[in-house]
Structure formats: C-alpha cells, structure tokens
Amino acid sequence: MKLILSIITSLLLSFGVYAQSDVTKFLGIPVDGSKKEMVKALKKKGFKTSNTDKEALQGEFNGSTVNVFVLETSGQVSRIAVLPIYGSSATDTKIAFNNLCSQFLSKDNYVARDNDIIIPTYNDISIPSDEDISYEMRVNGKRYEAPFIQLPAPRDSILMEIEPLKYVSITVSDESGNEIDLHSYLELLTKYSNNSVWFKIEEQYGKFYIALFYDNNNNRANGEDL
C-alpha cells in the first residue's frame, strides 16, 4: 500500500511541475517572462521591428509574412498575437482556415477544445465548403474561431501517465479511431487548459485575415484588481 501511495504521490507532484513550468510556447519560446526578453528571443529567430508599427515584429511564420505583437499583463508576457500583413478573399481565407485546422489536429502535442463536444474532429471545427463566410460575418455576426490546447508532450504519453490513477474507465474514440479513457482525457484538458492556442477570421475593408493567438492564461488577468 505504501508503494502504491508513493507512486501516486510522485505522479501528482510531476503534474504539479507541468502546470507551473510547461507554459504555452511560440516557436519554442515560452510565453512568459518580460516583454523585453521575449522581443529579444524573437529577434534571434529572425524577426525585426516593423517599419510601420514600432510595437510589431515582422517576419515569416508558417509560410506567411506576419506582424507579431507581444502583450503583457502586470509585467509578464501573457499573449503572442500573430497577424498576417496581407489580407485575402473570403474563399481563400476559408481554405486557409480549414488548412490550419488540419495542421493543428495532425500535431500530437495539440488537442482541439470545444465546450459542447468532448473530442472535436475536423468536421466539428472546419468551415463547410459551401458556406459564405462574408455573408455570415456581416449579416449574421458569425464568429469563426478554432481553439486548441498546447501540450508539453505528445498527448498519448501524458494520457499514459494519468491513466494509472483512474479506477473507473470510460473508453471513447478520437478522430483517428484510437480508444482513449474519457476520465484521463478530461483531466488532461483541465491540467493544461491555460496553454491556449487559437485562431479566428477577421475582416477589414473587404479583406479577410486569420489572426493566431498563443496565450499563457496563467499570466492573464483573473480579477485580481476587482
């Protein structure tokens, strides 16, 4: 019994370390620390101060020229915002949005997040091919967003660490048909819910853009000043 308790305690302590140190990363850089340190790290990655906006860093990201903004809360970096410099048509933006959904879902250190669906699939978060996003956004005020949680390690390896702590198992299947334990999966989502990466479609002057956000919600305001 002492051995079992010792193993459980060790696992719980290791998750505690994860929760504190494994924050969201952007290009391998922790979204944490001071803005000055983050800007310095991004410049080492090849980003340069924008000629048109001194608060922006310009560079290449995922095949596009983008402006990167470093936002901080109480002196700590809490968000990296990635905004494309050039807009596109509604059709091209819809295709790019769906491509991003596919790319994120194919990464083993990301999991999709949805309030109503336990394990969202591509069909749950992508935009139907026949949908007019321009009409939906302008007339119906529809928002197109895709939220994910970034994990510090491959999902399956983390689930393997969590599962031994579970006494009751409810098995469900993910998009690839792999069976996973529901309790373990929900605990994984809870432990790393502050490691938020998401993107949305924005429209300005008839052009459409996909904005990406890498959030460290541990550093965002949580009502401390109320």
Distance between the termini: 46 Å
Number of helices: 7
3D shape: globular
Q: How would you classify the helix and strand content by structural class? A: alpha+beta
Number of strands: 12
Helix content: 25-40%
Percent of residues in β-strands: 25-35%
Q: How would a crystallographer describe the biggest sheet?
A: 8 strands, antiparallel
Mean pLDDT: 87
Q: Which strand order does the major sheet show?
A: 3-4-5-6-12-11-8-7
* Sequence of secondary-structure elements: HEEHEEEEHEHHEHEEHEE
Give the low-confidence spans: 1-20
Gyration radius, to the nearest Å?
20 Å
Verbal overview:
With 226 residues, the protein is of the alpha+beta class. It has helices at residues 2-21, 35-44, 90-106, 122-125, 133-139, 155-162, 182-191, and strands spanning 25-26, 29-30, 48-49, 56-61, 64-73, 76-84, 110-112, 145-150, 171-173, 179-181, 195-204, 207-216. β9 (171-173) and β10 form a beta hairpin. It starts with a helix and ends in a 10-residue tail after the last strand.
